[in-house]
């Protein structure tokens, strides 16, 4: 495996071409659940065709498709799957650069979704290109998956798994600033309704103010941790957050009478939990905390908030001593001359990712490790050029050492 026998050899990549690849992917508007979401999937499929991979389009519902490319091994070695999503979040206020410019400037690549997570997708495409052009041949299959709909509870990766694609190991390339994330949270969305009793402000003392109760509840929830964590890494993933608070008159939450005490308040939020914990116990503990503000005429209910579709509710966990984690650790050490941070790394451990599906539905061991993260999902989203190029090298070295 001469191309990537050492860290110094791994640095021999075509930098201009690698930057052109990620910029081209960013320039395609693939906001989730829009008609153009799959455009970059077709572009990536064509690039994998050019590399001679065995390529397939996997339907993901409606007009949405995923791209899968398989580099067939000679036989006898472990197989490896790379996984990443090409759909992006919406554009928010505050951008000073073209969200679809794909600009490379001042040591960064800019654009919507470059961190979450087109840089990771481009990196493993370029890693396989470097290996093939260098004449290296795997013993085990290398499977590249480019999916849509990760932001809709992983519908793209679910479709890939339903189509039967598997490997002995996986690397999910969500942004972790190239740390090795071996535990991340499961998630449950919830809705809390508080009911009180209204009065005019002149008789406020006779009311049961749902809005006031909601403001007392909010910090209690934001400070929560949950019972039953399997280990310290699992406990680290615990977090609850209220992202929406509305109050008013009646269940319509009418806001036309500010002098009147609000008798209904609605809070919506999300909780994160780790191995050993589950959505049911989290909801139970949310109910207990909510009961603390249900005094003086206030009543409250807590329910799981779903859209009726599948949920990504299970945490991801990998054994730090597994072959794929150790291989990624070793590649990072060769590249950067230091130990790779590994474990339930904050803040990435609060994310959800398709790694949960790959583990729990696909039955595969793996690790989450990708470029970007620091400037993830924010105005002027960007990824360090150095991290992106090192991701290519890391993925190439991991492939060569694991599948060789």
What does this structure look like?
- The chain is built from 11 helices and 17 strands.
- The longest helix is centred in the N-terminal third of the chain and has 20 residues.
- Strand 4 and strand 5 form a beta hairpin.
- The strands form 5 sheets. It has a 6-stranded mixed beta sheet, with helices on both faces. The protein has a 4-stranded antiparallel beta sheet with strand order 11-12-10-13.
- Helix 2 runs antiparallel to helix 4, helix 4 packs across helix 11 and helix 9 packs across helix 11.
- Helices cover 31% and strands 21% of the residues.
- It is α/β, with parallel strands linked by helices.
- The protein is elongated.
What integer value in Å does the Rg equal? 24 Å
Helix content: 25-40%
What structural category arises from helix and sheet content? Answer: alpha/beta
The end-to-end span amounts to: 7 Å
Global shape? elongated
- Estimated share of beta-strand residues: 15-25%
In total, the number of strands is 17
Low-confidence stretches: 1-10
Major β-sheet profile: 6 strands, mixed
The tally of helices reads 11
Instruction: Give the SSE string.
Output: HHHEEEEEHEHEEEEHHEEHEEHEHEEH
Mean pLDDT: 94
User: Within the largest sheet, what's the order of strands?
Assistant: 1-2-6-3-7-16
Tell me the quaternary state: single chain
Write the layout of secondary structure elements.
Elements: H1 7-10, H2 15-26, H3 39-50, E1 54-59, E2 65-71, E3 80-85, E4 104-105, E5 108-110, H4 114-133, E6 142-147, H5 155-162, E7 169-172, E8 180-181, E9 183-184, E10 186-195, H6 210-222, H7 232-236, E11 239-248, E12 264-273, H8 279-291, E13 299-304, E14 316-317, H9 323-336, E15 342-343, H10 355-360, E16 366-368, E17 382-384, H11 385-403
